[in-house]
Amino acid sequence: MTEHEIDVGFGAPEGAVPLRASERRPSPLPRVPNGGVATARGFTAAGVHAGFRADPQRLDLALVVSDEPCACAGVFTRNVFCSAPVRVSRAHLDSCGYGTARAVVINSGNANAATGERGLEAARASARIVAETLGCTADEVMVASTGVIGVHLPIEPFESGVSAAATSLSAAGGHDAAHAIMTTDTRPKEAAVTFAGDGIGYDGCTFAVGGMAKGSGMIMPDMATMIAVVTTDAPIMPDVLHRALVKAVGSSFNKVTVDSDTSTNDSCFLMASGAAVTADAQPFEPGGSAYELFERALITVCEDLARQMAADGEGATRLVTVRVSGAATPEDADLAARAVANSPLVKTAICGHDANWGRIAAAVGKSGATFRQEDAAIDIMGLPVCRKGLTVAFDEDEALRRFEQPEIVLDIDLGAGDAATTVWTCDFTHEYITINGDYRS
To answer: Radius of gyration (Cα) for the chain, nearest Å?
Structure first.
C-alpha cells in the first residue's frame, strides 16, 4: 500500500450521519443586482485604459471617488517586500489604519514593488495627480498597484488616465473599475447588499455596502489579500470603521488561499460616506443594533468577494470550501483548515474528482492542530468518508456525481473542542502552471 492509498481498517460506524446535516444559516441580506463599489450613495467610479498595458482594449486604471472627504480605513500586507503604494497609503492613514479620504486610485499591469525611492515617489506623484484633478489634498488619496514586481511605474499614464477617469465617473462606473484592476483574473469580482434602518434608529433609511476586489494568484492573505475597495453610505467614524474592517477581513479575505503565497501589494480599503442619512444624524455606535447590522452586511460583502476570488483561482475549475469544527482553539481550527486548503495533493485530487479522504487526513495530521486520530471525522460533499479516524464505506459513483458540483465542500471535525472556521480555496490544474510559467510575458 502506498501513502496515497486508503487503509480501510476496522471499527468505523456504518451509515454515518453527515457532519453538517442540521446546519442552519441566518436569512441573507438583500443582494443588489449588478451591485458593486459605487452602489452606496455618495460614491462614483470609473475604469479606463491609461497605458499601463499594451492592449488598448484592456482597462488598467480604476478610480473610486467620494463626493466629499469621508471616513476611510485600510488594512495592508505584512509581506516584508511590501510595495510603494502600500507604504504611501499607510502613511496617508496616519499609520494607524484609519483617517479621511476622498479617492482610491488603482493601476494594474505594474505592482510598483521592490522599486525603492523611485517607486515611492511614483506612488506619491499618482496621489498628487488625483488630488489636483479632484480638488483635494494628496493625503486624501489612497493608492494601490497590481502586476509585475520589480518594474518601475511610469507616471505618464496617470497624467492622461486620471483626467479621463475623472471625466467618466458615475454611479454606474463600478463595473469598469472592477475590470480595470484585474490581472490574471478571468472575471471582475463585485458584490453589494442593502439593509433597512427601520427599528434600529434610522427609520425610513436604506443603507448599502458594496465593493470590488481582484485576486486570482499569489493569494494567501496576511491581513486582507489582493486589492479590494468597499464602500458604504452608513454614517461611521473612522476608528469604528477600522474596527469593523479588521473583523470582516479576518473572516473573509484572510480565509482565502489559492496557492499559499502572500502578495507584496495586498490592500483593502473601506470608505463610509454617510450619504444615506442627514448631516445631523448620529453615527453608528459599536454595540448598537445599527452597527451590528452594518457589520453583518460588511462581512457578507467581503465573504462574497473572497469566495469569488477563490472560485477564480488561476486555472481553477472548482471553488473548494474547507470547514473545520471541533477544534480545541480557533488557532487549531485555522491550522487544520489551511493545511487542507493548501495541500497540493488535496487540490489535485479534487481536480481529478477523486474522493481520496486519506489526503485530507494526512494534511490535517501534519497541521500542528491538537486532536486525536480516533476522534476525527471527515465528509466530502456531505458524504461521510471517515469516522473515528477510520474509513466509512461510501458509494464511489455517488462521490463522482457530487464532484460535478461547482463548489466542493470538505468538512472535518477534530473532536477536540468547540472552535470552528471556514477557509476557501480552489483545485489545482495544469492551467495554473501554464499561467504562472508565462506570467511576465
So the answer is: 23
116-125, 136-145, 184-193: lowest mean pLDDT where? 184-193
9: cell is 481498517
Mean pLDDT of 246-252: 94
Which of 39, 133, 184, 225 is an active site residue?
225
Nearest CA to 255 among 220, 226, 304?
220
SS3 44: strand
Structural contact between residues 360 and 346, judged by C-beta atoms closer than 8 angstroms: yes
Query: Would you say 207 and 297 are in contact if contact means Cβ atoms under 8 Å apart?
Result: yes
Q: For helices 156-168 and 116-134, give the axis angle rounded to 10 degrees.
A: 30
Known catalytic membership, residue 133 = no
Tens-digit pLDDT profile for residues 171-229: 999 999 999 999 888 899 999 999 999 999 999 999 999 999 997 655 455 444 479 99
- pLDDT above 90: residue 273: yes
What is each CA distance from 309 to 64, 120, 322, 351, 388, in whole angstroms? 20, 28, 15, 17, 34
Q: Which position has the grid cell 454606474?
A: 172
Query: Please, is 273 exposed, middle or buried when counting C-beta atoms within 10 Å of its C-beta (0-12, 13-18, 19+)?
Result: buried
Q: Distance between CA 270 and CA 290 in Å, rounded?
A: 17
Q: Are 63 and 104 in contact (CB under 8 A)?
A: yes
User: What distance in Å separates the CA atoms of residue 409 and residue 433, rounded to the nearest whole number?
Assistant: 24
Q: Quote the cell numbers at residue 130.
A: 488625483
Predicted confidence (pLDDT) per residue in 304-346, tens digit: 999 998 888 777 788 999 999 999 999 999 999 999 999 999 9
